[in-house]
Amino acid sequence: MKNILSFLKKLVIFYGIYVPLICVVIFTIMDINTGNARDWNKYLLSNLLVIGLGCQMVFFGFGHLFYGDKIAEFIGWEKGSPFQYEVGFAGVAMGVLGILCDWYTGLFWLSTIIVSSIYLWGCVSGHIRDMVKNMLMPVALIILYVLY
Predict the structure, then answer these.
(1) Domain residues for 96?
(2) Cα–Cα distance between 71 and 65 in angstroms, integer?
(3) Confidence of residue 4 (pLDDT cuts 50, 70, 90)
C-alpha cells in the first residue's frame, strides 16, 4: 500500500504540477514567437488559465472523484468522507472554467480568477488551520507544560 501511495505522490507531483508548468512556459514562448511580443502578458495569462488552472484542476478534480480515499490518505485527511466528492466536482467545475478561457476573454477571465482565487485560498487556509490544530498546538502545549 505504501508503494502505491509513494507512486501516486510522485505521479501527482510530476504530472499534476511540473508538466502543466512546463507546458505553460513552452506554449507562452511559442505564442510570443508567433504573435506580438508586446502581448506576452496576455499569452502568459491565457496559458495559465487554460493549462495551469483548467487542465490541472480537472486532473485534480477527477483524482478526488475517483481516488478519493487514496487522495485523503495522501493529504492526511479522513478516508471515506463525502468532502472528497464535493471537492472533486468543485475542482472539475473550476477546471472547465479555466479551459473555457480559451474561447471567452475579458470579464470571463476576471470571474474565473476571482472564483478560483477564493476557492484555492480557502483550501490553503483550511490546510493551515488543520496544521496549526493538529501539529503546532500539541507542540505549543508540550512547551508550555515544560515551562510550567
Answers:
(1) 2-147
(2) 9
(3) low
Coil vs helix vs strand at 105: coil
Measured in whole angstroms, the distance separating CA 67 from the mean position of its chain's CA atoms is 16
C-alpha to C-alpha distance for 38 and 121, rounded to whole angstroms: 31
Task: Residue 88: name the closest of 135, 52, 123 by CA.
Answer: 123
Output the pTM of the full model. Answer: 0.75
The domain total for the chain is 1
Q: Are 50 and 24 in contact (CB under 8 A)?
A: no
Q: How far apart are CA 91 and CA 21, in angstroms?
A: 18
Say what the alpha-carbon torsion angle 13, 121, 90, 129 is, to the nearest 10 degrees.
90
C-alpha 90/C-alpha 58 separation (Å) is: 9
Instruction: Look at residues 67, 82, 83, 61 and name the one whose alpha carbon lies nearest to residue 127.
Output: 83
